[in-house]
Amino acid sequence: MNGTTPAASDAASTASTPSTAAAASTAAAGGAVAGEPVLRVRDLSVTFHAEEGEVHAVDRIGFDVESGEVLAVVGESGCGKSVASLAVMGLLPGTARVSGSVLLRGRELAGAEEKSLRRVRGSELSMIFQEPMTSLNPVLSVGRQIGEVLRRHQGLDRREAKERAVELLDSVGIPAPRRRIHEYPHQLSGGMRQRVMIAIAVACDPAVLIADEPTTALDVTVQAGILDLLTSLRERLGTAIVLITHDLGVVAHTADRVLVMYAGRAVEHARADELFARPRHPYTRGLLDAVPRPGTRAAAPAGERARLREIPGIVPGLSRQPDECTFAPRCSRADEECTAERPALTRSAGTDGDDADPGHTVACFHPLGATAAPGEEAAP
Amino acid sequence: MSTAPDATAPEGTAPALEVRGLVRHFAAPRGKGSVRAVDGVSLTVGRGEVVGLVGESGSGKSTVGRCVVRLDTPTAGTVRIGGTDITRLSRRRLRPLRKDFNIVYQDPSASLDPRMRVSRIVGEPLLLHRVVSGTALRGCTRDEVRGRVEELLGQVGLPPGTADRRPHELSGGQRQRVSIARALAVDPMLLVADEPTSALDVSVQASVLNLLADLQRDRGFGCLFITHDLAAVEFLADRIAVMYLGEIIETAPAAELFAAPKHPYTQALLSAVPVPDPPVQRARKRIVLQGDLSGSALGPGLPGPGGVAQTVDHCRFHTRCPLAFDRCRTEAPEHRTLPGPGGTRTVACHLVADDGTAPDAAAAHVRP
Amino acid sequence: MSTQSPQRPESTGSTESTGNAGSPQGPAGAPAAGTDAYAGGAAGAVRAGAAPARPAGLLRQLRRNRLAFSGAVIAAVFVLVALAAPLIAPYDPARADFGSALAPPGLDHWLGTDDLGRDQLSRVIHGARASMQVGVLAVALAFAAGVPLGLLAGYYGRFADSLVSRLTDTLLAFPFLVLAVGLAAVLGPSLLNATIAIGVSLVPQVIRVTRAETLRLKHLDYIGATIAGGGGDGTVLARHILPNAASALLVQATVGVPTAIIGEALLSFLGLGVQPPEPSLGVMLSSAQPYIAAAPWMAVFPGLAIVAATLAFNLFGDGLRDVLDPRGVTR
């Protein structure tokens, strides 16, 4: 699919038109999907002012999403993935300094006026959050809340809005929608609430849906249904989905492409299959190895207890973004080069396998080999 | 679980934990009867054994944990720790016995007193139990406690300097290590770990799971590992008990449960956990259940907002079970012991035959 | 209230910090005290909740709230004046000088003199001393009685709670001043009795705050962990609940002082508190009554002193509340 080259390097960011570089790489990749991505993010940075100085929550990340595609943004807490999504939505408080470019269908949203952003939000660009209970207004019926969005953005009258709300609830898999629209959020279960949130989010047929940890607060048996719903939405409506998550299982289930973030930066980007099969960045590999999975225990040598692979050390603070690899202090492959310069997100040199993703990019001076299988080096 | 004392128990003593017919009802809001959070749970944790108690939110698994360490008092049933019945002991009588069991909570930032230094947090049980058990105060000198605290911190992988820090100066993983050090300070026979990794990041989870596995191996305490994370429980537990709506519906040795789940709910639960491997995950058969536990979305006559029905003349899972038939709606299935290679397993389902032949919930309701 | 000594040069790490940007969630992940980011989400929760505000950070944050800071400064001046009254008062507050009775403010007597020719400034200074004395003692008394009762009610619940809550409700049925006046009238007029009356009238508020904090804290995991670790009720209450309730109680104490000051002024005004010729702001107001037209300064200055003291302590208390307790627990 569409290989992006998020302009993460200093060089790229100062280049006059980073997007042309990306376009060139797309062309070179010869992806089957033609046309512009619906959402194109370039050099997005978010800085907060704190007592201790500046906090670089997001540091020059970039990605593209196409219609009907699911891009997963993966990382641990504090990696900046949620802040980045809020920045795309223009929902960060005034204390945040946002720079870079956010193009929605070719239109620049970064720095746009609040008024025009408000028109875009909820119609072309919508978002669902982790906790559906706090995102819904407890004193309004579900039908009212969906109707409100329709009336605001599509100018429907009360009756039309109601009919459409019923349709929407039906389309997100809520049984007996005609009865449900009169219910209030507290009468619904967690999974149902999240479905209502999704109904509201897709009410105006958005081009892009940002889902920030949409299933984290839900039970696994409920999560499965919600993920299926998201997948069917993008097939049915062609919605591009940006899925923010920390759960690699969810990523494997849902995502077409994956962007891995670490300490505010994008460290690796590839097609999902490729990323899971051949992670290049040591952090990605560490993350994959840290997850217990079926058979971890059985694979241990007889008489010995299985161990999960740990990533030593802790995530660095974000108050400085040095010109070095932020993962270097925790990385076994790091050398002087890693602490001397910030690695750019570039195409991995080791790409030579048959099914290798030409768009596989990694921000690492010493990426893992192209033929490495997960599990190599996994033994303690 | 199995009624017989665990065969693997060393020294032929009573199991670390033995729970029989545990019931905990709460008064329902607005005075409408009671919510049966836990309704007849029996399980055994042998000495040195790790038993995973798995369930989704509202299954009552945490209530079981709280009852086991007597932070909550059961409505009925018995809890024995190392053979001693602690179910009805007064708080005062219970105090000296508390050195035998302890608990690690989910959220390490809430389970450490923010005003205390780590040295005091970890040292507290040491001091309390020395005093309580009346042992010579010789062991209570500041230096000795301090030394023991640093030793404990070392065992959970923290540098001695951590003793002088306060909880908010530590990372989530470090805090959870402090929590574990505190719980193990007086060498309990049983550790209840209530979702100890759920609030942590993936890479930190791994290190905490490793730590628990190591400590368990080295010190040999019994562990009731309460979690909703099936991957974690598979990694850590010897045996697994699956809870649904206040009841254990299946127990089995860990490997067997994962290899061949019998109960349709267990099958659905295992199938719902996505595997972090795209091709594998895409190829898996999944059972998508209707409805969920945490709300009133199940229609009239079914579990209310509390999540628990008022009567038990039916299988608790029948409302969501893709295989449910008439008998499931009129008769509660009993717990039956099945023959198995790696130890006894039990299941409560009408559809599982006595020889262990189980139905395939996926066949009834497959989504590719 | 151990947290009060404000100038300990400890720590740089603020406890209340970056997260306050007010964004929904993310930025909290940006670690506050430069500790680490794993704690990100969790640390955010702590910050919002129970993280102790340490003295150095407390003072710094208080300084950012200008009203609260000026309140603190004025309150501090009052305390100093009260402590040093005999040293700084220019005249003996009880010495009558009929030659200069009812003198308007001037160089000799900055605030003028009263009907007996006593220096108003000296009397205000000594009056402030009496006010502070009653304020502090009454609050101390209220805490001595209210905190144990609040802990008892909040921690044990059931019978203890209903008993204490009934008591509180009964006392609260009377407005504070009415209760104080009634008690003082029963006990008989004296400074000590006025202090007792005011202290008792403050008790229900202290009970309420203590009980609410105890209820909140007793369900936290670290209390459970202490019990599971073998801690008895004494350990839980003294080592965990009380220290963590301290900030709410400190706020309550700070807003209790001005209430007591007003109470003292009223009781003295009514002749139930400080007895003339001892100076008190209330007594001064009372004796100013006949001269309100001829010598308005007799009423104005003690009145101003009362207003300033009350306002200062209230502002300081509100500021403390904001800093120590972002959730705004009940008064």
From TrEMBL, chain B:
Alphabetized UniProt keyword annotations: ATP-binding, Nucleotide-binding, Transport
Keyword Nucleotide-binding in annotation: yes
InterPro entries hit by this protein: AAA+_ATPase (IPR003593), ABC_transp_ATP-bind (IPR050319), ABC_transporter-like_ATP-bd (IPR003439), ABC_transporter-like_CS (IPR017871), Oligopep_ABC_C (IPR013563), P-loop_NTPase (IPR027417)
SUPFAM superfamilies: P-loop containing nucleoside triphosphate hydrolases
GO biological process: peptide transport; transmembrane transport
Example GO molecular function: ATP binding
Keyword ATP-binding among record annotations: yes
Domain ABC transporter: 17-270
UniProt record similarity statement: Belongs to the ABC transporter superfamily.
Protein name stated in the entry: Peptide ABC transporter ATP-binding protein
